[in-house]
Write a structure and sequence with these properties.
The complex is a heterodimer of chains A (299) and B (825). Chain A has 299 residues and is α/β, with parallel strands linked by helices. Chain A is 33% helix and 29% strand. With 825 residues, chain B is an alpha+beta fold. Chain B has 3 domains: 238 residues, no CATH class; 104 residues, no CATH class; 242 residues, no CATH class. Chain B contains 26 helices and 20 strands. In chain B, the strands form 6 sheets. Chain B has a 5-stranded antiparallel β-sheet, with helices on one face. In chain B, strands 14, 16, 17, 19 and 20 form a 5-stranded antiparallel β-sheet that branches. In chain B, strand 9 and strand 10 form a beta hairpin. The chains are: A alpha/beta (299), B alpha+beta (825). The interface between A and B is medium-sized, with 26 and 29 residues.
Amino acid sequence: MIKVSNVTKTFDDFTAIDNLSLEINNSSIYGLVGYNGAGKTTLLKTIAGVYVPDSGTVEMDGIDLFKHPEKKQELFYVPDDLYFGLASSMKSMANYYKSFYPNFCMETFHKLAGLFGLDIHKKIMGFSKGMQRQAEMVLGLSTLPKVILLDESFDGLDPAKRNLTKKLLLDYMADKECSILISSHNLHELADMCDHIALMNGKSIAMDCAVDDMNGSRCKFRLAYTENVDRNVFNGIEYKNYKADGKIVSFTVSKNLEEAERIIAVSNPVLTERFPLSLEEIFLEEMEDTDYDFEKLFS
Amino acid sequence: MNLKPNSRKQFTAMLRQTMLPSSVMAICAFLCFMLFTAFGYASFEPDYIYDTAHFFDDLRSGGIEDFANLAFLGAGMLNAVLCFSFAWSKKQSNVIFSLGMKKSEIYFARILGGIVPMAVSLTLAGVIETIANVSGNFIVNGRFFVMAAFTMLSYLAVYVLAFTLSSAVMANTGNVIEGILFTFILALFPMVLKAFLANTFWQFTHGAAIPGSDYEVISDWNWANPFEVFKNLYQSVMTSYFEISSNEKISFIYWSGIIMCAVYSAVIIALGYLGFKKRRNEICGTWGRARGMNEIVGAVVGFYASYIIGLYILGTRHGDANFLTYLACACTFVAAYIIFKLVFGYKRGKELKQSLNRFPAYAMALAAVFMVFSFGLFGYSSKLPKADDIKSVSVASPYYKFLDESFSGSSEYALKVTSVNYDAIYPDIDGSIYAREYRIPEIIYSDYQDIEKVLEIHESFIRDGKIKNNGAHSCASEIIISYTLKNGKTFTRYYTEATEGTTLKLLTLNDSDEFNQRLFNYLSRDLGFEYNQQLVIGADEEGYLDIDGYTEVYGQVYPYYEGNEAFTHTNETLSYLAQQPCYLFPTDMSQGYKLGYIDRELYDAIITDIKNMSANQYFNHSAEDEIGILSFGLSDSNYESWSDYVNIFNGIESVTVEDDKIIEEDDSINAPDGTAHETSWNINSFDIKTVVVTKAMKNTVAYLTEHDLLKHFERTLTAKDVKSVKLATMAELCDGNYENSAVYPIFYGAYWTSEQMAQWIRDNKDPVYYYRLFDQIHNDITDQNQIEKLLGEGVVFGYCASDSRVMEITYNDGSVATVMVRNSK
């Protein structure tokens, strides 16, 4: 289990993470989403010990990682920028990691490499970007970590390898009861595999909930009326993304769904449709504050 | 660093990972050594094989020691780049810092990984070289192994120091350029610091030694500067030290270079680690974000600039630095610091703003350093040993310059103006000396009364305090007073200037047996008379030779010595001795008279008189006291080559500035602009001794009277023969005509014939060396009455007080004489 408590990280004058807390349970895949520069990579690097926070703690199974860095031998961080030694092969990198990760399993390494169809004797520099990601994933999983941190690790993978990787991670998580923290912009992917999602919206976490809860707690309403309806009839509903197209009205609601349904019923629509929100819609909903005025951009 | 089992495994893994790249350099070093060993072994001549003085030369130097040291410095730096390049790479940092290792483990594994392969390589090379020596039948004894260990350890020490310094810097910077550049900047620090302290010490502290001199206190700490020690070892000491048969004791100083390298390396490793521990990994690959290192290097760059531009160039180089020097240092510090921040800063505006807060701290630190030195360096300037504790004291003074037997230049006792331009010696930018053109003779006093006298004079120096080199009120000199205490320690103070009062006191030291002995040594040098006074003046006749064939000419001739062994004169040496002529001149130098060869009776009379003269009579006699000039010691061989253009001696008897010697107007003095550095009486080109005969020299005068020789001292030139005269202070005649220049206060007269001057111009084509000392002076006096009065006051030798003037006399025929006029402000 990973527990991040009140972590703040600044770069000179810029605060990348401000008093952030989160918890990732065992047997859990935690998705981290957020716009560019929201602090996802900073958070991952802070958990991995690459960055030292200005304040706050990062614990793994109740042990402070900065006081006891040796605990990180059970943690593997797959960064966005991969590093392989000059002229090194997967085999040599496996030996490298083996000497630093006591749980490194050569048998697993060979199996996984075979599964991905990677030549372990070939120079990694000769691999494509996607293959390099696969190689790093193979090396990381071979260390049999209790915590895996993945930073945009699906980028560059073809759909087949993407599915394979997802499946591997799910299996590994189920088998080892490990915690996986994935940051990604690919919301569909996260929705498919994560059981928990956190949305970073500038320095802190704007939303943090289980995917199942998310599906039930947020929805989109589409209503049809016999005549044009005044927006005020929906007073009392905390809605977002309100759109009115003649007699058709739509909006999203994330809080007090029962109260919303009661008010809608009072407005007497001829047709009421209720849809669960996709992760992408939730992301956009959270991001709706950012208004882009395209008209003036090229004027 | 308490490693748990897993941590130990990780540490070992990191060490192994680091040793791989650094082994490349170690293997290269090993192969180079093997190459030298092989070549050295193959090229041994049979005789050379047993020349044990050259053991390990192929490894230690083989003529490549400078290159080898540079190579090890370079190797250390390059390996540091290899071992700590992860600190500049975001990608590598992501991996390294997420491995589950403490920063201390990472840092020390990398340090060890860089050192161990080279240590192994050098050990192996040393072992193989030892085997080669054994198989080559060289002597292998205890000293050999010490020597072998020293050789390999010294190389390792250089490598380790370079590696640890570079590592410490590179582990705490953001990119390779910063890493390498900052390493170079910080590597210079010990040398610049030494030069800075030495110069500060000299310029601000009264009684401090000039940087680079034998008496420099800073030099006493050279053992703490590994670069200095290695420099010394490799340049000189090592040669004798490495003679395997030498009995020279292996003292601490030989090992101090290695020891201090190890100590500094350890300190640097610790400092590097402290920085690395606090290092923010987000600076990887960035520019100017390593704030701590940036601040340190910025301050160091400012310090360098303040030293080079402020203290060294803008600050006075005459040992009298003041507040302006401090201001120059502080300003150059700030300027260099700001420029550094502008170039290497991350957020320049913000950093400069923050820097403003630091300037006062830096300025105060600099001021504190200067103040400590200015206010006597914790009593250094005013401290004196007690007379009872002193075994002996040596006083080295330029006033004794003419007494230095080993001084290879001309004889200053001869008439000469040369030292009007007293060449002050300056510390160079690296703390060494340049423009030091002569040695300063020293006289050692061990008599209690003399010691007390020296202490009294020394107190006078202390009372005078730090004074400026100023021809108006003080006399520039170079006086070293060094006490040898009864407890074996030495106590030395060094003065580059003295007030006139102190100078006059100092001259009274000449009233001593030690001075007379040195004077005797000087006067008897190269005359065949031995330096041993007892042999010549004492009653001991043993060793005198019966040389009937020569005594008629010579009076007495003595055996000559080489070391302590007496040799009898062969005909050849006797012939040489018999050819030492003696000349008499009047004080107007108008004519020369060859007396013949130096007569023992005359010689003894001169020695006795000079011995009996007080310092006051010697240096401060009046024009009326001066009777004439007596010169001896010029051999015929010198005379012949010299006589080509020194007409005054040509033909001898009474040759003066004759009409037929006057050169045509076109050929006469036509000196181009420039500054005269030296004007010399040409007789000084040879080792002759010239004595100004005064009324106080009663024995000499009696001899000259008895032999009817005083008539040759009769002055013949009058004001009518003089075209004009000029007057100037010694300072005005100095290089560049600076009134405040350092001046050497002992005056020697000079005389050049117009032909000599023309000849010199023709021969040398160099405006620096011909006679034009007064070119910058335009106060020609042509009034006959005034000239006549001044001629009567002119002296040819003596102490030139601040109220004295040097007078140039230009005769109608174009010849020029230079004399001194006292009390003529």
